[in-house]
Amino acid sequence: xxxxxxxxxxxxxxxxxxxxxxxxxxxxxxxxxxxxxxxxxxxxxxxxxxxxxxxxxxxxxxxxxxxxxxxxxxxxxxxxxxxxxxxxxxxxxxxxxxxxxxxxxxxxxxxxxxxxxxxxxxxxxxxxxxxxxxxxxxxxxxxxxxxx
Amino acid sequence: xxxxxxxxxxxxxxxxxxxxxxxxxxxxxxxxxxxxxxxxxxxxxxxxxxxxxxxxxxxxxxxxxxxxxxxxxxxxxxxxxxxxxxxxxxxxxxxxxxxxxxxxxxxxxxxxxxxxxxxxxxxxxxxxxxxxxxxxxxxxxxxxxxxx
DNA sequence: CCTTGACTTCAAGTTAACTTTAAGCTTTAC
DNA sequence: GTAAAGCTTAAAGTTAACTTGAAGTCAAGG
Lengths: 148, 148
Hints:
The structure is a homodimer.
Chain A: E1 2-3, H1 5-12, H2 16-24, E2 32-33, E3 39-42, H3 43-57, H4 62-74, H5 79-120, H6 124-127, H7 136-146
Antiparallel strand pairs in A: 1-3, 2-3
Helix pairs in contact in A: 1-2, 5-7
The structure holds a DNA duplex.
């Protein structure tokens, strides 16, 4: 199966202009052209685009993704480099998940805070609680927020 | 304790210009000024800034954070609204974590892929494996990547 | 034959979140 | 008394990742 830029964009759920922009930025060296200059996407290209999508979700900038693609085009001699890059991004994502976990804990605390405030009619109640009055799981969070 | 913009920035690990920018954007209505116009940060302001930081990490744009701060300044009548916003952000973060989890699984697959390629000397080996030859935990990932 | 729709390129515009620069004020240290 | 450090504002500059607009090409349908 082959696809136009519009069809591939639809498959991926992005705007066609995004794919043209990626091509312009050198991320899509694998995309071929028909005799009259129209981009011809193959099924295999879908997989490349999914990998680009994946790396983008790790927060990697497009120019670094371009380097990864460039390496992949080089062939088997760059396997080690590519492996190293993947391992590095994996660690970056693990770190991001830990940070998000902490953010979630803060929001859990805030949710409890506003539920308590709502029930009491005023934020003064949760705000002025001592650490001992605070449910155990929120103590660490409040210590962090208040630098206590 | 009171702090200048530079001291507070240091505590938070951000640039002073960032705090000035936030102030300009209306995110810091709680920060007072000394007689000669210098910003005076209080300990309580540190907590506000941590909350701003937390909301920023959820991906909330600054103008929405400003609205949250504005609500908080309104007082107890906005408790319900603020609770709702927190719950919404909490759900957004849970979703982000799920997406990151999927990204991580893709990277796990790619790591295995390149380790296998390295050991074989060519990416042709992992690439041409049938679904049955593939370790079980990677089958779903490859199906997604290849739209199989 | 001609209109429609989707493709092309190139250039310019957009947005968010800062950062930098310039010009000026205040306090502290020698 | 003056120089340095750190504060102020306002305005302009930066960056990434797109998006939009203009002008043109091409194939299919009525």
